[in-house]
């Protein structure tokens, strides 16, 4: 079967992704209401009862809003590092001790035949992480909510078959937008969010014959549009001498209001 995934929702209003293989189904983040998460799961023929656990990237509300309710309702283990547990404790309510799982940054976790690896990222949270998923030779990487991509992050997500990567904003739209300057400065900083241009620059370094598809994720509804993101990312790659054909590599969409179709990492 290999790895399959669907991005249930992606953006500043809420984030959740499901990754599964033949014997394990995990959700990354639960940043919408429990009711909405259940609706999105149903759209992909899933229930909370199908989940084997929830992985947390960081404690911001658009990543943990429904975490406590979903975890309690379905008696699910929740995986996060110590600092993230401390930072989100008041927001998610009581989680039973047996479901409070510590996964330190950089650790590897084997759940059935699915291997999960976390890696540190740069964001204004206690100890934010991204995740890699492995099933035999397949690799899926999830890296959003990062102000910049360090060499360690590049190394972590290199040679991924499929990458879910942040393309949060268009810099000019953000600069002209309605946000106060202190918020704009935070988004543009090294602990903020990745711009379309920066996402393209990173992809131009990472494309090495391994990565087949990249899902552009966590787009701002105020300062970005999917077609603009795809155009800017592709342009930034071409500016750096990285040209590709659609049968070699594809930029794929995520949505804030609906899930992506199921995708298999092994698909060409």
From TrEMBL:
InterPro entries in the cross-refs: Metallo-B-lactamas (IPR001279), RibonucZ/Hydroxyglut_hydro (IPR036866), WalJ/YycJ-like (IPR052533)
Domain Metallo-beta-lactamase: 13-191
SUPFAM superfamilies with a match to the protein in the record: Metallo-hydrolase/oxidoreductase (SSF56281)
Catalytic activity: 3',5'-cyclic CMP + H2O = CMP + H(+); 3',5'-cyclic UMP + H2O = UMP + H(+)
The organism's place on the tree of life at top rank: Bacteria
Primary role: Counteracts the endogenous Pycsar antiviral defense system. Phosphodiesterase that enables metal-dependent hydrolysis of host cyclic nucleotide Pycsar defense signals such as cCMP and cUMP.
Name this protein carries in UniProt: MBL fold metallo-hydrolase
């Amino acid at each position: 079967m290999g790895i399959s995934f669907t991005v249930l929702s992606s953006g500043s209003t809420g984030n959740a992704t499901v990754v599964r293989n033949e014997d394990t189904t995990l959700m990354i983040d639960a940043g919408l209401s429990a009711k909405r998460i259940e609706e999105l799961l149903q759209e992909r023929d899933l229930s909370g009862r199908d989940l084997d656990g929830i992985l947390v990237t960081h404690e911001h509300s658009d990543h943990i809003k429904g975490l406590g309710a979903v975890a309690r309702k379905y008696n699910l283990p929740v995986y996060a590092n110590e600092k993230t547990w401390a930072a989100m404790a008041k927001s998610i309510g009581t989680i039973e001790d047996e479901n409070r799982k510590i996964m330190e940054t950089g650790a590897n976790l084997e759940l059935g035949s699915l291997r999960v690896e976390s890696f540190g990222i740069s964001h204004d949270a206690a100890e934010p992480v991204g995740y890699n998923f492995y099933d035999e030779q397949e690799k899926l990487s999830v890296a959003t909510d990062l102000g910049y991509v360090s060499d360690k992050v590049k190394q972590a997500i290199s040679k991924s078959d499929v990458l879910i990567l942040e393309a949060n904003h268009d810099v000019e739209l953000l600069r002209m937008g309605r946000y106060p300057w202190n918020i704009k400065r935070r988004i543009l900083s090294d602990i903020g969010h990745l711009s379309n241009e920066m996402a393209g620059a990173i992809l131009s370094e990472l494309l090495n014959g391994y990565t087949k598809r990249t899902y552009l994720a966590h787009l701002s509804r105020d300062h970005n549009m999917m077609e603009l993101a795809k155009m800017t990312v592709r342009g930034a790659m071409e500016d750096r001498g990285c040209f590709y054909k659609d049968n070699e590599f594809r930029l794929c969409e995520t949505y804030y209001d609906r899930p992506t179709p199921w995708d298999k990492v092994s698909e060409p």
